[in-house]
Amino acid sequence: MTTGRLRELALRVAVVVGLLAVLLYVGRGLAGDPELPLLVAGLILFLGLVVADPALVPLVALPFLLVTARLSVAGVDLAVSDAMLAVALAPSLLVLLAGASRPMRQVMWLGALYQFATVFTLVRNPYQANLVEWFHAGVLVLGAVAVGWALGRRGHGGRSLRILALSTLALALITLAQAVFQYDAGNFGPVEMSWPYQVQKNAIGTIFALTGVVLYVRPAWMGWSRAWSLAGFWTVVAALLTTQSRQAIIALAVAVSLLVMRRTTTRRRSKGILLALIPALVGVSVMVQDQIQSGNEFNSFFQRLTWFEDSMDIWGTDPWFGVGLRWWYTDRFPQAFQPPNSLMDTMTSAGIIGLVAFIALLVGTWLVARRLDPAYGVLAELVLVTRIVQSQFDLFWVAVQVSLPFLILGLCLGAAARHEAAQEEKAKVRTQVEQARHPALRARPARTAGAAG
Question: What is the pTM of this model?
């Protein structure tokens, strides 16, 4: 048994002992609580899934990782996606600690570098929201990659992509149905999904764009036919267009264009889709021009220009270390807004030091993805590009919009590592078979130094 297997077994035993201790404590202290049976049943189910396969909990949690609805836990307001990501992370660490590939370690080191770089702004700006967001950012990046890695490494990569695609298609169909009623009433404005929960147009638009990339890339290990994937892709695109999320439309167009134009993919792509992208980009251009010509200083275009100017002023108060993560939650500045640009957000929050580490994180992970086998790396690369492009015109550090691309990156890394391990095992078996058939091929013992003399 390898060291990694022993470490994983020890961690599983520790998890079992810990959960049994929790059950004992709950049973003794909350015997009169009517909700106790549900709590115990939930813990036992969680325990059973972890023991059977640590990746089963993340697999069950996958659809909820797309939910942006808010909930309150222990007085802390967070998205359902963040809560489920935290739940999925615990068993995923068992898989990660059992061993990680070189590309996975590189991504984790890049994430750790960013976390370390933002420690300086924690020390310089001590307030609760700063500390909470520091942990939150770590979970959104490192946690999401770890969850994706666990799913891919344990053989659930294709299944995970299908679950994400089906969950997004459900949201797309709801959005399209709402668009029909909205258009029938004569309202041709942006469609924001309001059932079963409210979702802002740019949030749902980013989900549609990222899943659209997954469906158009359609890696072989996803297990979907070309017809199914294209049907899903155009359904998601239709829903995206109804949201009128300009940032997401541009990001998806860039990703698809890069895929079509590059030659290092696993299959040839028709360049005809580039013609279909032109009307969408023209529509975005028309919407922007209408806002500029309206002269309304409070529309999204002019509001962003104002926020950019204010961001530069706030950054100037502490250019090296920044004024703190989630500084807009404080009353230190007359302005209270999250900069609608990933670079300005990071620059104001963590200063030049944090910005350099942030750029290293994005560029470094993109390079790691680019060096992967194209069967796995193309998807990872393009979801990162989609998110990077979209975040130049909108918020970056928000639930789902950060965790989803890094989750998919982890899926690709884990699936690639599993494939490489399987290939190495096959090669080893073939070598052993050949040696058994031809004893002369067996390695001869090396001559000793004395014999050589």
Answer: 0.86
Structural domain that includes position 241: 102-424
Band (448; pLDDT cuts 50, 70, 90):
very low
Domain-located, residue 24: no
Q: Has residue 379 been placed in a domain? A: yes
Q: Give backbone dihedrals phi and psi of 77, rounded to 5 degrees, phi first.
A: -85, 125
Q: Would you say residue 43 lies in a domain?
A: no
> What total of structural domains would you count in the chain?
1
In a domain, 349, yes or no: yes
Interval 62-105: pLDDT, tens? 999 999 998 876 666 789 999 999 989 989 998 998 889 999 99
